[in-house]
């Protein structure tokens, strides 16, 4: 029995509000009209015999409606069907664009007791195509008569049934409420297009759409020079093409070109990455490409702000601070209700007092305040919400779905340094984009809500589709928290919420979102894409034409006579160049007569002077002439004569035919173009190949008609000699070319029938020498037919394609004939001789797998080129390949004070280099030049002021050293760079090497040990850290360094980034822990003194009282789970090719 009975319905619309007002569709919509309509059906038993019943017409919201009921169901299965029927939509004069949105409930009720009822609810967008909506299976017909509950009554009483409709007509503010998007045209309806999802690239699509509408970003991207590049390996060009297509395409844009330029394979496209990580890697890549171009600095100008970390003593005048750049801000979600609270927490001041006092230089331990304040915000502010976090209780990454609100307009004045309690309008920011994540930590989907123009129109960019949305959808729907939807009175969690917010400074929004000019797009982008589209269109038209056609290639005696290999032509093997066989394209529906007319016109023979033979593959995969094409009815369609092997195949039909030309002698003798079959019933068409054993090649290839296969083969030897211009009595070796690896010597005393010679067979013959002594002297310079074909079998025509992107230095493709035993060195020399380049400088790359082929000079071809491949890429290096292969790329990470990765670098160095070489190379990668003076001491120079001013330390020039370094500086200043002395860098940075999450060694400038001496088959990492100020100021050499490591429960489970930690003499265990916590990559809230252990030489974990002074330990360990996000989501980090 329903606990919330229905009151009297026809007049009381409050029931409608009560029953349906809690539905999920009505928190953000305007109700145009609502009504309750009751339809009473008398004589139900009579109605059962009718197929369907209509109610009277009634009006709600300016639209006319009826109720439609099928007493025994739409499918006559004795289940009542009930629908709401739109009269307007069924009117033949109704415009195609007409629609009405309605939420409605339908109820079947006892006509006298309204408390006895059953109901169902639905919502629908009524259109001319979908003009009714409801429930096909409402209730079984027999159940209408069942007593309901303890009422003693059924829905039908006195053969009467009531149908009650509760109808709301909803205002469609976006134009797409409950829209069927199966036929949605984003460009036509919104002016924008989406991006295709390759599998799991929705996160990339969302970010790219948000970047696309930022005019200055798009303009800077187009300013990167790419005219001589290819999109397959140029990230800027591929991105330019994506942006161009987003502006000009009428349908969703493919991003495979872009991901290919990243160096990603298909697996990577099905691996979902973090938006923030992808954004950082992409912008780093583009910033590098923008250097020394018009676009240099553009990304910084758009997204870069500055923040200051500080520690300010309370009782003395001492402040330590560091200014850093940022491109995005990570805001906490947990424990914060909105963006304002999260910003408040971000700049919250921590007091260092008691045991946690700050060691101020020159003042000792002091009470101090520690915090972060912003010095500037960028024009475009990216806020990443920390939805993903580590759950210590469950030892796993989880997604935080708590409600977190964000405003449309945000003033950030109070978070800036020198705030004077006034919210200045220049610090007003307007929400531009919301990137949303749906799902949990293991799977999910990203989409973007963007306001492309400075107005109130929002759009949802969901991969391929773009459609308008309401402000409610942008804000309330993506705040997260508990669901506002009610299902059986239970409130559920929501897993769709904002993950990234993008705000734009209000005073600059008109400029940032200004319309993009075509003049800002390099002409070569549009010209190349237009050309490609035209070629694609032509290719599609060609393919469509071919689909309707037969393509018939006709093999002639002229073509056969120049073929030096197996069969009569080569159409698919790599041992020889492919044979060019002209073709005739004709519609499948054309007649045979039309085809013959085309042949006559092309080859200038009358139809009585040639006949056509089919060429087919035999079971042994040889390609041979088989039978004469015969067609008695010239009006027969070509598709009926040449049917495909697969009856379901509807593509182009490709056939090969041989054209046999009439023999003039036959015309004289028989007055017929070919031997009459009635006179020569045992005739057979074969092909002869004469091999010159001295010239070692086939010199004659032609057709030959055997008059009678019953005769022995030797009978035809004089004719063979005549063809080869040999004396008539010359002895011959005659072979049948069965297939490439089977060249059979024939017994000439046997008949051709016994030898199983049939139409299309190939006979090869050569002069036969006797075994006398004189002839043996000449055989060394001779070759016989089986040897020739064996050599062909091991031969391959390899195409070499140069990968140079410079059109001026681009080299045409080169074709070389190689053999399976051709060595790598021989191949290089052949290519070098052909293109006049040093063969030592070639680097070869496989065609299918794009793998570099190692320099192994004596390796034969079949060791590095797959049997079915005949193409190799190559590049021309500036140094010999064997030297290039000796170069290795060593990843080096710069660390923050808390030993988190700040920036990653790739350092190129020879594999036999020393640690000294590595030391110098790392500094060079960091932007410094190291030079030695006459005494062998290093001096450090920065190339540009901006390179060293942005470092965490304030580096000052050494004036007293300028004179002695001036000469060295001039030698290094080849590029007219201004070098500035900064020797303090050498004392403030430390380079160290780790192995399996332990510190292996400190890299020093006077270490000549080879980098090869590190342990093999283990992962080696190199890091650059800033030496703590307290350690820099110490003069004592007695203090030593130990390894500080992270482990999970047991010391063998190491993880994270270890770091060198200085041991202070006579330091207590409590002081050691406090000092350690300043270097650990965990927040202060997560640190726990109980998790600190000392490790002795036997790998035992030790703990002491805080007042104890420990000794005899070799490492310090901190026990914590491995909470790296990528550790849980993927073993493979995100990378984009440089």
UniProtKB/TrEMBL annotation:
The keyword rRNA-binding does not apply. It comes from the Eukaryota. Residues 193-506 form the USP domain. SUPFAM superfamilies: Cysteine proteinases, TRAF domain-like. It catalyses: Thiol-dependent hydrolysis of ester, thioester, amide, peptide and isopeptide bonds formed by the C-terminal Gly of ubiquitin (a 76-residue protein attached to proteins as an intracellular targeting signal). GO terms for cellular component: cytosol; nucleus. Keywords: Coiled coil, Hydrolase, Protease, Thiol protease, Ubl conjugation pathway. Transmembrane segments: none annotated. It is an enzyme of class 3 (hydrolase). Residues 951-961 have a biased composition (Basic and acidic residues). Pfam families: MATH_2, UCH, USP7_C2, USP7_ICP0_bdg. Residues 962-978 have a biased composition (Acidic residues). Residues 34-167 form the MATH domain. Residues 526-553 form a coiled coil. GO terms for molecular function: cysteine-type deubiquitinase activity. GO terms for biological process: protein deubiquitination; proteolysis; regulation of protein stability. InterPro entries: MATH/TRAF_dom, Papain-like_cys_pep_sf, Peptidase_C19, Peptidase_C19_UCH, TRAF-like, USP, USP7_ICP0-binding_dom, USP_C. Residues 951-978 are annotated as: Disordered. Its EC number is 3.4.19.12. PANTHER family: UBIQUITIN CARBOXYL-TERMINAL HYDROLASE (PTHR24006), UBIQUITIN CARBOXYL-TERMINAL HYDROLASE 7 (PTHR24006:SF644). Belongs to the peptidase C19 family. This is ubiquitinyl hydrolase 1. It comes from Anaeromyces robustus.
């Amino acid at each position: 029995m329903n606990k919330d009975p229905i009151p009297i319905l026809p007049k009381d619309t409050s029931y409608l509000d009560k029953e349906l007002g809690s539905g999920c569709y009505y928190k953000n919509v305007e109700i145009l009209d609502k009504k309750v309509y009751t339809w009473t059906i008398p004589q139900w038993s009579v109605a059962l015999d009718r197929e369907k019943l209509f109610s009277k017409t009634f009006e709600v919201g300016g639209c006319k409606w009826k109720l439609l009921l099928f007493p025994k169901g739409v499918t006559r299965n004795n289940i009542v069907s009930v629908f709401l029927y739109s009269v307007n939509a069924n009117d033949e004069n109704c415009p195609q664009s007409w629609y009405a949105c309605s939420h409605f409930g339908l109820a079947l009720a006892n006509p006298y007791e309204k408390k006895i009822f059953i109901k169902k609810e639905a919502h629908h967008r009524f259109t001319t195509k979908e003009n009714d909506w409801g429930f096909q299976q409402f209730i079984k017909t027999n159940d209408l008569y069942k007593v309901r509950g303890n009422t003693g009554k059924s829905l039908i009483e006195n053969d009467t049934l009531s149908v009650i409709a509760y109808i709301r007509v909803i205002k469609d503010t976006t134009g797409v409420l409950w829209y069927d998007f199966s036929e949605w045209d984003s460009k036509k309806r919104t002016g924008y297009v989406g991006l295709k999802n390759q599998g799991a690239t929705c996160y990339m699509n969302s970010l790219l759409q948000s970047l696309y509408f930022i005019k200055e970003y798009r303009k800077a991207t187009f300013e990167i020079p790419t005219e001589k590049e290819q999109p397959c390996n140029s990230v800027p060009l591929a991105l330019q093409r994506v942006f161009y297509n987003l502006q000009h395409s009428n349908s969703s844009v493919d991003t495979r070109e872009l991901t290919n330029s990243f160096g990603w394979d298909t697996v990577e496209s099905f691996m979902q990455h973090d938006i923030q990580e992808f954004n950082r890697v992409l912008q780093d890549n583009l910033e590098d490409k923008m250097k020394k171009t018009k676009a240099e600095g553009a990304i910084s100008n758009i997204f870069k702000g500055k923040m200051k970390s500080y520690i300010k003593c309370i009782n003395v005048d001492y402040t330590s601070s560091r200014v850093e750049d940022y491109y995005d801000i990570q805001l906490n979600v947990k424990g914060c209700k909105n963006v304002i609270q999260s910003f408040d927490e971000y700049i919250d001041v921590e007091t260092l007092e008691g045991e946690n006092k700050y060691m101020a230089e020159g003042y000792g331990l002091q009470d101090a305040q520690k915090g972060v304040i912003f010095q500037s915000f960028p024009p475009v502010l990216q806020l990443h919400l920390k939805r993903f976090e580590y759950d210590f209780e469950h030892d796993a990454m989880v997604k935080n779905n708590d409600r977190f609100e964000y405003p449309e307009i945000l003033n950030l004045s109070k978070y800036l340094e020198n705030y004077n309690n006034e919210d200045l309008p220049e610090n007003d920011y307007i929400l531009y984009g919301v990137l949303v994540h749906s799902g949990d930590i293991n799977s999910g989907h990203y989409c973007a809500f963007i306001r492309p123009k400075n107005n109130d129109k929002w759009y949802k960019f969901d991969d391929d589709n773009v459609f308008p949305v309401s402000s409610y959808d942008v804000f309330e729907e993506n705040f997260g928290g508990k669901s506002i939807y009610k299902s059986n009175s239970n409130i559920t969690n929501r897993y769709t919420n904002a993950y990234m917010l993008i705000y734009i400074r209000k005073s600059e929004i008109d400029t940032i979102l200004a319309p993009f000019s075509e003049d800002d797009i390099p002409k070569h982008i549009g010209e190349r894409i237009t050309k490609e589209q035209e070629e694609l269109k032509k290719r599609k038209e060609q393919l469509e034409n071919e689909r309707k056609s037969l393509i018939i290639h006709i093999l002639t005696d002229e073509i056969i006579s120049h073929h030096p290999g197996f069969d009569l032509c080569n159409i698919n093997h790599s041992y020889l160049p492919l044979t060019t066989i002209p073709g005739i394209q004709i519609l499948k529906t054309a007649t045979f007569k039309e085809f013959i007319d085309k042949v006559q016109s092309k080859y200038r023979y009358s139809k009585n002077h040639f006949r056509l033979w089919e060429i087919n593959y035999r079971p042994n995969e040889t390609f041979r002439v088989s039978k004469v094409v015969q067609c008695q009815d010239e009006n027969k369609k070509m598709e009926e004569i040449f049917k495909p092997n697969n009856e379901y195949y509807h593509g182009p039909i490709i056939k090969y035919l041989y054209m046999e030309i009439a023999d003039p002698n036959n015309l004289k003798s028989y007055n017929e173009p070919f031997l009459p079959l009635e006179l020569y019933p045992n005739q057979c068409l074969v092909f002869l190949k004469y091999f010159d054993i001295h010239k070692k090649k086939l010199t004659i290839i032609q057709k030959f008609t055997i008059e009678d296969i019953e005769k022995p083969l030797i009978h035809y030897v004089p004719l063979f000699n005549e063809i080869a211009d040999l004396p008539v009595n010359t002895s011959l070796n005659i072979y049948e070319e069965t297939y490439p690896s089977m060249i059979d010597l024939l017994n000439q005393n046997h008949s051709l029938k016994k030898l199983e010679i049939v139409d299309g067979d190939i006979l090869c013959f050569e002069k036969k020498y006797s075994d006398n002594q004189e002839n043996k002297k000449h055989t060394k310079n001779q070759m016989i037919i089986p040897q020739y074909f064996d050599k062909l079998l091991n031969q391959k025509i390899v195409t070499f394609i140069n990968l140079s992107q410079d059109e001026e230095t681009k080299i045409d493709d080169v074709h070389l004939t190689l053999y399976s035993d051709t060595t790598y060195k021989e191949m290089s020399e052949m290519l070098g001789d052909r293109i006049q380049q040093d063969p030592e400088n070639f680097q070869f790359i496989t065609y299918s797998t794009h793998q570099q082929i190692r320099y192994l000079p004596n390796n034969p071809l079949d060791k590095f080129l797959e049997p079915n491949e005949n193409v190799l890429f190559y590049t021309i290096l500036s140094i010999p390949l064997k030297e290039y292969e000796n170069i290795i790329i060593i990843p080096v990470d710069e660390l923050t004070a808390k030993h988190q990765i700040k920036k990653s670098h790739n350092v190129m160095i020879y594999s036999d280099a020393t640690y000294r070489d590595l030391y110098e190379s790392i500094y060079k990668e960091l932007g410094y030049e190291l030079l030695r003076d006459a005494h062998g001491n290093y001096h450090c120079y920065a190339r540009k002021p901006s390179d060293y001013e942005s470092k965490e330390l304030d580096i000052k020039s050494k004036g007293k050293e300028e004179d002695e370094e001036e000469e060295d500086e001039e030698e290094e200043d080849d590029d007219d760079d201004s070098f500035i002395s900064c020797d303090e860098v050498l004392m403030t940075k430390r380079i160290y090497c780790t192995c399996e999450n332990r510190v292996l060694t400190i890299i020093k400038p006077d270490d000549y040990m080879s980098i090869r001496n590190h342990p093999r088959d283990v992962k080696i990492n190199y890091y650059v850290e800033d030496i703590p100020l307290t350690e820099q100021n110490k003069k004592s050499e007695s203090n030593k360094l130990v390894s500080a490591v992270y482990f999970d429960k047991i010391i063998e489970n190491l993880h994270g980034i270890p770091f060198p930690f200085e041991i202070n003499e006579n330091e207590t265990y409590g002081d050691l822990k406090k000092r350690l916590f300043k270097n650990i990559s965990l927040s202060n809230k997560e640190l726990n003194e109980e998790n600190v252990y000392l490790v002795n030489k036997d790998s035992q974990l030790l703990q002491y009282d805080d007042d104890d002074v420990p000794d005899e330990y070799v490492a310090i360990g901190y026990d914590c789970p491995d909470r790296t996000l990528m550790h849980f989501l993927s073993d493979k980090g995100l990378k984009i090719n440089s």
